[in-house]
Amino acid sequence: YRDEATFQGKQVAFYKRAQILVADTWSVLEGLGDGDFHDISTVTMFADYRIPQVLVYLGAMRYSKELMEKIKNGVMFYSGEPQEVEIRGCSIWCVELICDYLRELFEKGGRSEE
């Protein structure tokens, strides 16, 4: 399964199933032996359709009015369509920003500057 698409003239790859394989291997082997991945923290979120729903619901991500209307009207986005690729890519970026913020917060002992 090649989870790839062309977006704005550039080839992008999500490889959700490969990420799940790595995460499951790490989890089942409890990070030991063959599951000892020194870079497991670099695995991004799995780009599916549930995470964007949650991010939008929580206000971490917003859709344009046009996109929201399509979603509300049940328009199906097929794999590789520009809007489908953009939603998945933006979701990954949004989760990365949240992770960066949480790492920073953790380093400050849980104290926010806000």
Could you give the distance between the termini? 44 Å
Question: Which strands sit side by side, in order, in the main sheet?
Answer: 1-2
Largest sheet: 2 strands, antiparallel
Please mark out the parts with pLDDT under 50 across 5 or more consecutive residues, or reply none. none
In one word, what is the shape? globular
Structural features, described:
It is a single chain. This protein is mainly alpha-helical and 114 residues long. Helices cover 48% and strands 7% of the residues. It has four helices and two strands; from the N terminus they run E-E-H-H-H-H. Strands 1-2 form a two-stranded antiparallel ribbon. A hairpin with a 2-residue loop joins strand 1 and strand 2. The chain is globular and about 45 Å long. The termini are far apart. The model has no long low-confidence stretch (mean pLDDT 90).
